């Protein structure tokens, strides 16, 4: 585990894992109905099932990255999760309010950076 990593690589990898695991814990324990309802309103099929599948991908990917065990698989899972969640929840082109549209676009750009960080783990 982390045998060929520099200290900064370990810190960065742990920070990425904490981002995904922390949000998975918060969302899967306190925001399930809110997210499922929003997904349903956006036309996502089987929103509750899709949401829990997303949580599973997020947890598995986060743990693999955290433990430095099959990190590439974990990173690919988290890349898939990030892209899917962005497409589902941050459809800035559908948002009329300029401030909300800006927030969704900012999240999009942040997620592009997160995917970039995950690609460095592959």
Largest sheet entry: none
How far apart the termini lie comes to: 15 Å
The percentage helix is over 70%
Beta-strand percentage? Answer: under 5%
Radius of gyration using CA atoms only: 15 Å
Helix count, DSSP H or I runs of 4 or more residues: 5
Q: What's the structural domain tally?
A: 1
Q: Give the ordered list of helices and strands.
A: HHHHH
The backbone outline, from C-alpha atoms, is globular
Mean pLDDT reading:
97
Q: Return the structural class.
A: mainly alpha
Would you identify the regions where 5 or more consecutive residues have pLDDT less than 50? none
How many individual β-strands? Answer: 0
Characterise this structure.
The protein is mainly alpha-helical and 122 residues long. It has one domain (7-121). Helix content is 80%, strand content 0%. It is globular and about 50 Å long. The two termini are 15 Å apart.
How would you concisely characterize the structure shown here?
With 122 residues, this protein is mostly helical. It has helices at 7-30, 32-41, 47-67, 71-89, 98-121. It is built from five helices and no strands.
């Amino acid at each position: 585990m982390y045998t060929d990593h520099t200290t900064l690589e370990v810190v960065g990898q742990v920070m990425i894992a904490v981002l995904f695991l922390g949000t998975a814990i918060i969302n899967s324990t306190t925001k399930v109905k809110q997210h499922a309802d929003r997904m349903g309103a956006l036309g996502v099929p089987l929103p509750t099932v899709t949401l829990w599948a997303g949580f599973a991908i997020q947890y598995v990917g986060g743990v693999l990255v955290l433990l430095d065990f099959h990190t590439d698989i974990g990173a690919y899972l988290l890349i898939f999760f990030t892209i899917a969640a962005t497409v589902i929840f941050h459809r800035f082109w559908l948002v009329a309010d300029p401030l909300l549209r800006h927030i969704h676009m900012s999240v999009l750009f942040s997620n592009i950076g997160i995917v970039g960080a995950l690609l460095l783990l592959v």
